[in-house]
Amino acid sequence: MKTWCAIGDSFTYLNDHLDETDFRVSEGYLSRALKKLPDLSLINAGVNGSTTKDWLTIPIPFADIYTILLGTNDWHHQIPLGTKEDFKREEAGTILGNLGVLIKRICLVNGEAKIMVMNPVERADFICVLDTLNQAQGSYAPEGNVMLSEVAEAIFSCATEAGLCALDLHKECGFTQENVIHFKRLKKDGIYKELPYPDYIGVPYHPETDDYPYPLEAISLTYDGLHPSDKGNEIIANLVVDTLSKLLN
Fold first, then answer.
1. Segment 50-92, tens digit of pLDDT
2. Which among 4, 27, 192, 200 would be 20 to 30 A from 60, CA to CA?
3. pTM value?
4. How many C-beta neighbours within 10 Å does residue 141 have?
């Protein structure tokens, strides 16, 4: 049996911490994928909130196969995107450069390992279900003059040109501003309204006094505007299985 190490942020971490989704998720993408890949054992190395910068120093366990799903937190924290040359030179300091260093670190752990690189998906306004003060804007607007879609495209392009197995999750999974959440329930003119995208943009949410804006009926491909719901996790899992199966064969 071969060992699969999943490197990532909260998308990956939450697979083993469903309580932190307030049990809005019944099964993460890793567990769903493993059911269809019975010849693999899993090491979930996901670190909640991590960026590519964090993975310059986080210990990497030995495995036969590695998947990497990072970038959305880098974008939110406005870590510079960098260039393809940063990636090729494995020069830390940018998203692409950090990613190049991470891949080098994996190869130092196991030079024979197979590596699959994924990219981040679209996100609505994030409101943490267990801590409503924890918020972040959706990817409908830039952070640091960069769109999340640009980050996703650059990661996929660098991985592909480097000859790595790459999954364009941003393109293939179908997460869009229109379907990541059905609506955002907000007070407008003193009355709660179920506002779809883009109607909710700019309408304030007051966590101290307002109801949580994503009730269960608002859940679509995400359950909190950012993290995949059961439906979203199933889509990601199927894509991961298809790509990993080709890589293994």
1. 999 999 999 999 999 999 999 999 999 999 999 999 999 999 9
2. 27
3. 0.97
4. 9
